[in-house]
Amino acid sequence: SQYKKDCVYALNVLASAHFGGSGSSATGLFYLKRAMQIGDEDMLEDVYANYAAELANLGDAEGAADAFVTSFWISVAKGAMPRLGTLIRRAILVPGVHTGDGPRSVEDLRVGFRRRVKDLIALGRYGGVTWSDDRSDLFRVSRGVSDPEKIKCLPPLQDTFDDWTNGVQTPHFYLHYHGFHDRDYNELIAQMYSLLCPESLYEVSPRLLLSNYQLSPLVDARNAPSIPTNATTALALLTPPTSFQNAAKTTQVATSSPSSSPSSQSDDNSSTRGKKLRIAFVSSHFGAEEPHGLLLLDVLRRLPRHLFEIIALGVGPRRPHDDFIRLVGGDGRYHGVGYNDFLAREILFREALDAVVFAEMQNEAMVHFLGYQRFAPVQILLMGAPVTSGNPNVDYFLSGDRLEHPFRTRLSDRQEPYTEQVVLFDGQAISFPPHDESFSFGGSVDDNSTDAGGDDNFGIPGNIGGGAIYMCFQSLWKIQPLFDFVIGMILHADPSGRVVLQAARDDHALRTNKMAERMLISFKKHFCASAAADAACPLANELMSRVIFIPRVPSPDVIDVLRRASVVLHPFPFGGSKTAADV
C-alpha cells in the first residue's frame, strides 16, 4: 500500500539523517531494521543499500556485503535494468580494520578484491551466461544471498551504470593502506568503470574539442586501450602545451622555491591578466586540519599570481575558514559544491582551465569520478593517496625524489608503479604549515573526536613504575597486521611499558573491538605458536592488557595528547603523515 511505502521511505530518510550528521548510528540502524520489518521486498532496495553502507562504516564487512547484494537483487526483481551501484560497492568493499592475521591474510583479501572486480567486468561484457562459480564471493552464494540460476540469467551490463557518484559513494579507500603501489588494481578499476559506465564518464570540455589539442603520446600509449572508442577519438584532439610535455619514461626533477612572498605573488596586473594560466585545485579536504588540504596551503601561497589564476573547488560538507578563501582569491574563486556533481562539472567546464590539480581521488566518489572527465589539457594528481590513479585522464603525478625508487627511470614498464608521468620535487615534496600558523578551519572539526570524558590526561595511564608510554595515535585502518608483531615485541621488551592507540569513534566501537581481537590472536601466534582465538596463552593476555585504546580528540588537542608519550610510534607500511610533521 501507499501508506506502507511512505512509512518505509520516512524511516529510510530518518536513518540517513542520523548517519550523515551528528546523530546516533544505533538509532539509524533501528529505523532501517524497522523498515525491513514492515516493508514489502520491492520497497527495500534503498533501505538495504543504506544498511550495508553503515555496517561497512561500523566495521561489519560481512554484513555489509550481504546487504549490498540483497539490495542488488531487489533492483533486479523490479524488472528494469539492475542498479549496479550496490553490486559495485560489494565488489570494491575493503574492511576498514582487517581482521586476518599476518601478511598472508592481506594477500588473500586483495586476491578476493581482484577476482570480484574481474567478475563484474565479465558480467558487463557477457552477462551471466559465462558465470560458473562464486569463488570471488561477489554474489555471496555460500551465504545463501544469491541463487546461481538467477546469476546466469543476468543480461550484459555494459554502459548501464550512469549514476556513478551516488551509486558508489565511497571508492576503494582502504585498499592503498595495505602499502602496495596498486597500479594493477587501479587500472582494473578504471577498466571496470570504462566498461560499465556510458561514454559520458569521459566527457570532454567543449572548448578543448574545438581546439587543436592532442593527447600526449605517453598518455595515449598507456591508457587509450581502456577508453571507449568514441572517448578515445575525442581525447585524440587533446595535447598538453609544449611546456608540460615530457619524453616517455623521463622523470623530471623540479626544485621548489620557498623565497617568494605571498604579497609579491598577488599582483593582479591587468596587462598580464590575459596571459595567465588558469588552474583549478579540487579536494574534499579544504576543511578542518586535514593533511590533504594543508598540503596545498604552501602551494597556493607560493604560486606567482602574475602568472597564474587559481580557483578551488571543495567537495563535501566542509567549508574552509575565511582566511583560506581569501588566499584563493575570495568567494568568486572558491566554490563549495557539496555533493552536487552537476554543479562541479559545470564550474570546471566553464572556467576554461589550463590545468586541474586533484589533491586526492580515493576519499570521495565525486572527486574520483571527476577525474575521468577532461576539463583541461593538463590534469594532475597529488599524493593525497600515494598511489597511481590508474585513470587514463590523469596525466601527471607529483611526488618527491625521497619517496620514490632511487633508480625509477631504470624500471621496466612492468615494474613502473604509475600510469601517469611522474614529476619529482626535491626531498619529500611535503610542506605542511607550522602547527601554530595553519588556519583554524571551520566545518567538521569534530569528525576526529568524541568526548574524552573531560580527563586532562585523555585517558592515558600514568607512568606507574617508570614504564614508558608508546603512542601510535593514528586511525585504526593504518595499523596493519604486520604492525601487530612490532607492538607485541615492544611490550615484551619493556615489561612495564604501555602502548596507547586511538580508538574508533564511539558509534564505530566494533572497529576497536575487531582490532583488539586481531591483535590478541597475533600475539598468541607469535608468542605461543597458536592462532586459535580460544587458545590459552597467558603471555599474550598479559601483553594485550597493556594495550590501551583512548578516545579520539578534537584536532587542536592532538598535540597535547602526543606530548604525553614517551615514544611516538608511526605504523608501517603506511606512516603518520601530518602527525609526523607535528611531532
In short:
This protein has 23 helices and 12 strands. The protein has helices spanning 2-20, 25-38, 45-58, 61-77, 85-91, 102-126, 148-152, 164-168, 183-196, 206-209, 217-223, 229-235, 262-265, 270-273, 291-302, 322-328, 341-350, 365-370, 481-493, 509-528, 538-544, 558-562, 578-582, and strands at residues 252-254, 277-283, 308-315, 334-338, 355-358, 378-381, 396-400, 421-425, 469-472, 498-502, 547-550, 567-568.
What secondary-structure arrangement, pairings included, does this model have?
Layout: H1 2-20, H2 25-38, H3 45-58, H4 61-77, H5 85-91, H6 102-126, H7 148-152, H8 164-168, H9 183-196, H10 206-209, H11 217-223, H12 229-235, E1 252-254, H13 262-265, H14 270-273, E2 277-283, H15 291-302, E3 308-315, H16 322-328, E4 334-338, H17 341-350, E5 355-358, H18 365-370, E6 378-381, E7 396-400, E8 421-425, E9 469-472, H19 481-493, E10 498-502, H20 509-528, H21 538-544, E11 547-550, H22 558-562, E12 567-568, H23 578-582
Parallel strand pairs: 1-8, 2-3, 2-5, 3-4, 5-6, 6-7, 7-8, 9-10, 9-12, 10-11
Helix pairs in contact: 1-2, 1-3, 2-3, 3-4, 4-5, 6-9, 19-20, 20-21
Offer a few descriptive terms.
583 residues, 40% helix, alpha/beta, 8-stranded parallel beta sheet, 4-stranded parallel beta sheet, 23 helices, globular
